[in-house]
Amino acid sequence: MSTTQVCFCHRFLEMMNRGNNTTLSCSRSERVASLIILSMLVVSVFAVTAPVVSAQSSGTAIAISNITASTQTPTAGEPFSLRVTISNYPNSQRTANLNDLVVEVDGDREHILNGLGQLTPGSQMTVSVPVTINDPGQQTISLKLYGSAGPVINVQSQYVVDVRDPQLPSLGIAVTEPKTDQTGDITVSNPVVGVTRQVNVTVANGNTESLRNVQLRLDSDGDIRNPRRVSALIASGDQTSHTYRVKFSRSGQQSLNATLIYDTPSGKTRTVSQVDTVNVDAATSDVTLDVSNRIRNDSSVILTELHQFGNVELEDVQIRAVNDGSTVARVPISNVPGEGSRNATLDDNDIPAGNITIVATFTAGTDRQTIQQSLRYSKYSPAPTSAIALTDVGITQGGGTLTIEGEAANVGTAQVNSVLISAANTDAVTPVGPTKEYFIDNIDSNEFETFEATVNASSNLDQIPIQVEYTINGQRVSSTLPVDIGTIESQSDSNQEGGSPLLAIGLLMIVVVGAGIGVYRWRN
User: Fold this and answer.
1) What's the pTM value of the predicted model, to 2 decimals?
2) pLDDT (tens digit, 9 = 90+) per residue, 292-327?
3) Domains parsed from the chain with CATH numbers
4) Got the DSSP string for 471-491?
């Protein structure tokens, strides 16, 4: 700005200060230049980003020459700063005494910076002022500079920022303790009244800053053990999970309310809440106990099966065998889930033959309950009267399948019934068709019946286990007999060997026919 233009502007401002009745003698060119300069000042007053606003009076030219923000997208409720540059231009004739810099947001005074000091002609100063805007969206910040250089200095400027919503951490609530259904799929059943369930609450920090002094609390209509959890820090991009044990006292829709309280790096305390609704089922319990006398590995056992057809988990389960009022055997078993079952086996070491009562004791909800079942227990002692031996066994191979053929001989003294023969299913042996199982109605004492079994087996086996099951005297007996593989004969070799007798018979028939024809012709 030239000295002449400053003079024009100075005269114009003096005219404005003296009132409408004051007249100045200016040439046409002076008036035009003054209007141009005034227009530039008006434009700078209403600029929204880093405007240059000046006050020129009595030889002093003061301006807010530049404004920059510490962030272009501040977060609502989070402080940021403005760097404000104030200039006293070289053409100024006086030193300016700067008193106050006032920061206003939408008309509300946000901050006052006092006693800025003096600013000589041709110099500038930069100050930093804090700003906090609570409302998101486009916001206008007004800067007002007050001071004196003879006359009063009053310079104003505006700066516009886009304030974003705060990036709050997210909360996730999940009722866990999955169970596997009959199809193998993982499912999560509804909570049940009076049954403690596990609830996981996950805090995910998607903000660019860490969460400090984190407090998480879970509330509900039920009973929660240790509802308040504390974390010192959750870094940006991290997440943490807390597990709660919750017991609901009422059925129907119940709420779970997670509240997160934390501090931002700027020291501001924030609160985030998440409310989820879960369906709580009424408690039902329908327990049955099945018992049976079995023989396993040439020993008598009692097999027990505890079934819960209701939705209440059975806890602290114990199975006892009672004879004449005394417990002769007992075994603890795992919790039985709702709509689930558990098996337990009682061996015969301390269980006498005769009437035995099997007692199952468990906790269903808050109640300790008992269910019992009786059976006539008979002890089994292995004897030769029920022995089965496999004899004359041969193995042939066709493709990838082995065919085992032989004789099942009853070397005992009593008839065995419902004989079932198959290869034992192991990691190396798998029964396959066409003869996965071979059934024989009965085998008398000292008699035998042929059998056949087909399997897929690993190539490096020395033996194939054959499982034989049968019934004798009302008891089911099971045993596993090993069969040496030895030399495996291919089916193609068997067919070739089987062709030799047929060839001999054919040659014999030709000889017989030829001889007959010769005799006939001799007689004629």
Assistant:
1) 0.45
2) 988 777 678 889 999 999 988 899 999 999 999 899
3) 46-163 (2.60.40.1470), 170-280 (2.60.40.10), 287-377 (2.60.40.10), 384-487 (2.60.40.1230)
4) EETTEEEEEEEEEE--SPEEH
